[in-house]
Amino acid sequence: MKGMSETYLPVITGVAVVGDRMLRLLFSDGTAGDVDFSGERWTGVLAPLNDPAYFVRVMVDSEAGTIAWPGGIDLAPEPLYEQAKAHPLIAA
Predict the structure, then answer these.
(1) The CATH number of the domain where 26 resides is what?
(2) Residue 91: inside a domain
(3) Is 92 a member of any domain?
(4) Model pTM?
(5) How many Cβ atoms sit within 10 Å of the Cβ of residue 61?
(6) Residue 84: which of 7, 30, 8 has the closest Cα?
């Protein structure tokens, strides 16, 4: 596309909790995939994500183009995009 940077990264436009610490992400370029956080053990400022009741409160931060939780916790979109591409949803 004309005028688009080679470092263009699609933004997250949708998120759904689809399992125990598993999210389904939709990106602005149409990429959709699941990201499994079940093996993660967060520490420091991310420690609240270990609480399942808090984890399910995920939302799209449209300003940042990523996912976020109440209290200002968010995750970098680049690794989320790579993980979603590695586990894509296949249309039925």
Answers:
(1) 3.30.2020.10
(2) no
(3) no
(4) 0.86
(5) 18
(6) 30
